[in-house]
Description:
By secondary structure, the chain is mainly beta. A hairpin with a 2-residue loop joins strand 28 (402-403) and strand 29 (406-407).
Amino acid sequence: xxxxxxxxxxxxxxxxxxxxxxxxxxxxxxxxxxxxxxxxxxxxxxxxxxxxxxxxxxxxxxxxxxxxxxxxxxxxxxxxxxxxxxxxxxxxxxxxxxxxxxxxxxxxxxxxxxxxxxxxxxxxxxxxxxxxxxxxxxxxxxxxxxxxxxxxxxxxxxxxxxxxxxxxxxxxxxxxxxxxxxxxxxxxxxxxxxxxxxxxxxxxxxxxxxxxxxxxxxxxxxxxxxxxxxxxxxxxxxxxxxxxxxxxxxxxxxxxxxxxxxxxxxxxxxxxxxxxxxxxxxxxxxxxxxxxxxxxxxxxxxxxxxxxxxxxxxxxxxxxxxxxxxxxxxxxxxxxxxxxxxxxxxxxxxxxxxxxxxxxxxxxxxxxxxxxxxxxxxxxxxxxxxxxxxxxxxxxxxxxxxxxxxxxxxxxxxxxxxxxxxxxxxxxxxxxxxxxxxxxxxxxxxxxxxxxxxxxxxxxxxxxxxxxxxxxxxxxxxxxxxxxxxxxxxxxxxxxxxxxxxxxxxxxxxxxxxxxxxxxxxxxxxxxxxxxxxxxxxxxxxxxxxxxxxxxxxxxxxxxxxxxxxxxxxxxxxxxxxxxxxxxxxxxxxxxxxxxxxxxxxxxxxxxxxxxxxxxxxxxxxxxxxxxxxxxxxxxxxxxxxxxxxxxxxxxxxxxxxxxxxxxxxxxxxxxxxxxxxxxxxxxxxxxxxxxxxxxxxxxxxxxxxxxxxxxxxxxxxxxxxxxxxxxxxxxxxxxxxxxxxxxxxxxxxxxxxxxxxxxxxxxxxxxxxxxxxxxxxxxxxxxxxxxxxxxxxxxxxxx
Length: 800
């Protein structure tokens, strides 16, 4: 009995001793938001003190972590004072970090190495990614005057962007990988996690943008098909507590009027939010049609976007977005050499003349996108879902080439054309990804599904009376009428592991299964086929010194196959277009010096193409169209440099350069072998000088001047048009843009200019003169799409 009593006392003593420990060692789930005095802070490190347990705040400054009750959370971020918070009974911890005044005096490029992006589907430092990544923030967007995707891409070395023919036709080239006319872009475009499947949307205006990133190199693992050259990731501004808004108006030459407004706030503080914006632009244009005495490059754009965001409990978020864009602009704005004696035949660097068409082309582009994004946090990982549906409708009409009588987009009312391109896309992506940013192992698993229904109808109308400008009686030639369905299913996984504090490795793979169906309604031919695309990715990085990293990567990407409307054996045009694959190798260095005042990044890349897609004209003697062929193998390699220098507290210098060597090595068209890849500038560079001064107690002045240069560009892949490729290239050209902004309290006034020295170049050039057997000056002549002249204007804005 005595022994039992002693044992009971011992057990009671042990229980008394360990109960406090058991209580204080219980894990509790904590959530909260980290902000500064003016805004939420993404990428803040949240660490449980004296452990390896940690996470970081997301793009909205939110975090979620499990920690020991009674422990301490440590919040740290570059440029801010570290703060420690004791874990007590509160499960919601909201933290405000104070700027570190001592660091502000020393770290003059504060925040560059901490600029964070989602190019690899999770929030991480741009400078720590083993990839070539460039990002611009909302402040840079304002001062550089970026108002569309093209305005951003032209400032990135190694990328070119041009527009032609209608509101949706753009030509993008990334590291020697060109876009296929009317076809898929070489880059994936993602807005707030929503994949834009239609290349026609790459011409849309941008407003209310928080950050834009471009990641170069094949990104098939993260973005699937068509990301063979990289991806553009756009993040719009997010709502938060408190009401705020902005109105902006502007006026420029060409009778250009710009209006923009947005409002944002909370429906219920910390629980539900809204943000709505609208943008409107209307320009009379600058390039006159001398036959009709009207400008051909007029444009009107209306864009609307709405966002509702809900925090569901402590760890889940639901976002509902809707966007509508409507554009109306001139189309088929070609200048021909027949009616412009100063536009020299067979000279791709002749920039004289004006459009002379008898038919004023008009194009419209309407798109609607609705999306739902859901995110919920679990212990150590997150679940994300992105669902979207888009409806895109493009239509244009305009003058057309006629051979009887001969009229190459000229003043004779011989013929006109119409085209209608539509697409309806359903996307769904599910992702599981790790959430402990301080863990040695990061991972990402996902499933992607896409269904695209698209139509493409093209018609030519030949005038029965070539003197009737009203086209009262026409004969219709149905050039194409295609219905297409593409279904994609992708599975992907990605692992990243820190072997040491300095050495990181990652590996991932994605397999995509695609099914294509085509109904060619002119001939009544129905086709279908399936294939799969395996896309691995490997990378390694080594931090050999503080803020200095070497990296190497390999990745594989692909561009979807398709169908041509016609089979033209003489031009090598087959019914089936094979999918195109790229194998990309990259080695580089990311470094910073002088307490982050000087950032210098260098990359070398080598890309090997399999079945590269190239477009060309084809005709079966009745119908003419642009078809796509495959060249067996091509190569592209080059160097890229990206540098940033804080000269002083008032001046920043940003620059970059790219040098690319391309070659077609295997092709069924013998004349193409040894030629350069077309539509890909062989070099480019960008230099931007930024200035900012405090003008008074509540005012400041900001200014920017930037120089963009695009190098030699070859127009065609082979010698199909009767001449060597080396004779048909565009010479290098340079554009200079500038902007000056004066801020006083909540008011802003800005003056801007684009292409201020009115540099001329061709956005597109076709040697149609070869069709008459005399490219040096026969009756048919050549055509070109002129560049935009100098534009300038003033803008006013008010924040409330």
